[in-house]
Design a protein that fits this description.
The protein is of the alpha/beta class. 29% of the residues lie in helices and 24% in strands.
Length: 465
Amino acid sequence: MTREIDVAIIGAGSAGLSAMAQVKRKTESFVLINGGELGTTCSRVGCMPSKAAIQIAETYHQRNLFSRFGITQGDDLTIDREETLEYIRDMRDIFVDQVLSSTTDEMGDEFIAGYATLTGPDALEVNGETLHAKSIILCTGSRPIVPQAWQQLDDRILTTDNFFEQENLPDNIAVIGLGVIGLELGQFMSRIGIHVQGFDMATHMAGLQDPAINDMAIQILQKEFPVHMGHAVTIVENGNGLLVTAGDISYECDKALVCIGRKANLDNLGLDTLGLQLNDKNLPPFDPHTMQVKGVPIYLAGDVTQSRPILHEANDDGKIAGFNAVRERPTLFRRRTPMLITFSDPNIVQCGETLEQLDENKIVIGQMRIAPLGRALIMGKNKGMLRIYADKKDGLIRGASMIGPKGENLIQLITLAIQCRLTVFDFLRMPFYHPTIEEAIQSALRDAAKQVEQKPEGIQDLEIL
């Protein structure tokens, strides 16, 4: 059986659904193909269930401040892990149902449940059917990486794919990989009473490139659970449990949560039929401003690109790919300023360009420690630091890194300033309310402004006082 269509979208995750929304505006001749579970990575195993876990852990952790506030009997509070995990699954199911009820549940013949294989730049096969498409959008997502040797350890190895399916968790667990997911879930488990130790081959956590912020992040978070950085990790069976080793450190535990990265779902997709040179990630060359693969009517979107594995970026990828897939000539889109948030407590955030990308001889760094900030003191969360990077010559804001309370809110404001190409002087003209955590931005901007070489002339605004 053969069918002619305008667009075939492979993958019904966030990117695929965003692509479909754009395609539907121009044509009814399309299909959405998905193999495996529906519901998007974000709602099933990513952003949303992890945030439910984080909220529970933070709420329970607040009992440690009760005596400071004059609230008694906080030590008598307990947490039921099984009830906690059941609640997280209930929340997860709500998020998944919301996705399904507004998308694939309403589709008819346009939706195909199955695994597709490319047979050329304009053709594919799925469930024995051949589809010829004017454009193909690949949104096949990614999956957790687990080294082959660790796969033999069966259910003692957890990943985000099965973590939220656990009805209970052991008393001792190792977290391998201290990126965003490892830190968030590691802190969650530690705060609900599980003994956790974290391990990472890298010397920086949560993708941080700013050494000052990284050092402070390690200093703060290792007070909640031990973290071991900069050594290769081995895991072997140890009776009914595991022995995790990194350098001189050995840790006996019941299970290990492996968060060392994700691999694009490209297996058996038939990329070799495109006749293109693939890179070391097994991807063909593509333009991130059009999402088109060079020389063929195929587009990539979402985690499969291995470039910006974040939901709002996947949505943007899908919008760009879907928009261009139904037009004769692709349109170049300016990408939004990059932003990354780790929802640990305190938050770890960064936006714009990193120190690694900047020439430190051509920038100034405005810095503010959170310790003396009035609102943070009141909240009992006065730990952390904000650093803002700006051009030394004119003060154009280029990037920022932070560990601190409400970092998820502050980084949005700084990202907006970068997107609008504001200088530190422009930003300082904006009002800052007292007492708020946002005052940390104002202090960091003032510190940077003092170091800028060319200050605006003839300005009598209050930011110079």
